[in-house]
Each structure stands twice: as structure tokens, then as C-alpha cells.
Amino acid sequence: MSDTRIALVSAAVSGILFGFGLSVARMTDPQKIWNFLDLGAIPSGRWDPSLAFVMIGGIIVAFFGLRLDRWLGLAKPIAAAAFIKTSRTRVDAPLLIGAAIFGVGWGLSGFCPGPAIADLGLVPGDVYLFVIALFVGSWVAGQFLEWSEPSRTSNTTNAAATTSAL
After folding, report:
1. Which of 36, 75, 115, 163 pairs with 82 at a CA distance of 20 to 30 A?
2. pLDDT at 162
3. d(CA 51, CA 145)
């Protein structure tokens, strides 16, 4: 089987498994999300902490899964051309702003992007507007990042040139 087919099959299996997990955890139910996010309900006992266990489970799986390449000594992933490594390790303004926007959208709608897409097949009338806004917002953010990136590069180049000239 070619690398492309392996990647597609791997993506399909991962997506199906992820969607199944979302359904089992009831993360496709906005009321479940609102019950978790309603911290004001803690004193009355109406707060639903079960989503925290889903998150902890995901963190544990990711912790081990992201280290398999080192433990198994893999030179490249099984279903991709190369491992994706990043040099970004700082908590910066774009990360905080993006997290805040994500959190506000999640809290207001009760939909997280993955479960919202899964909900298109279950309750499409309730989720269409959110998914449309999700794609429009993603496109706008991408356009903004493309627009702002050249100025960062030219400023860095100009600063480097000025520093080397001194």
C-alpha cells in the first residue's frame, strides 16, 4: 500500500475512533458541555465533572502517544512522510488570544469544533450556524496570519541587517 493510502486510511480510522469516543463521552451534547462549564453550580451539586475525566484520558493518551517515536526509535511515522516538530514552546499572545476565543465560542454555543462536526449528522439544525461560523472564523484567521506574517519577516530581516551593519 502506498504512503498516501496508508495516510488516508490512518486518518479515516483515527477520525472514526475520535468520533466514536466523542459520542461515548456524550461530548456531542451541548447540555453536557454547559453542565461542565457551569462552575457556579458546584455549591448546589449540579456541576458535571465527567468531562474533566475525558480530558484527563486524552492527556494521558497524548502524553504516551507523542513519545512513541522516541521509545520505538522510529525515523519516520508509520502513516506520514515525517514527524512534525515545532520550535514554538512559549506561551505568547496569539496562543492566549486563540485559546480565549475558542473558550468563549465553546461556552456560548456548547459546541467544541470536533463534536460540532460530528453533530452535523445527528442534529444538523442546531449546529449549522456554529459550523459555518467555525469555517468562516478559521478562514479569516488564516487570512490575517498570512497578511501579518510578511511584516514580521521583513521587520526581522531589517533588524538583523541593522544589527550586522553596526
Report:
1. 115
2. 42
3. 32
Which single residue is written with the C-alpha cell 492527556? 59
Contacts of the segment 156-163: beta carbons below 8 A, 24+ positions apart? none
Radius of gyration of the chain (CA): 21
CA-based nearest residue to 31, from 137, 123, 102: 123
Integer Cα distance of 127 and 119 in angstroms? 7
Cell of 135: 469555517
Q: Residue 110 is placed in which grid cell?
A: 456548547
- Residue extents of the structural domains in the chain: 1-85, 91-166
In whole angstroms, what is the distance from residue 97 CA to residue 162 CA? Answer: 31
Q: Give the type of residue at 153.
A: T
What is the secondary structure of 19-65 as a DSSP string? HHHHHHTTTT-HHHHHHHH-GGGTTTT---THHHHHHHHHHHHHHHH
Residue pLDDT, tens place only, 10-23: 888 888 888 788 77
Rounded (10°) angle between helices 30-37 and 50-65: 100
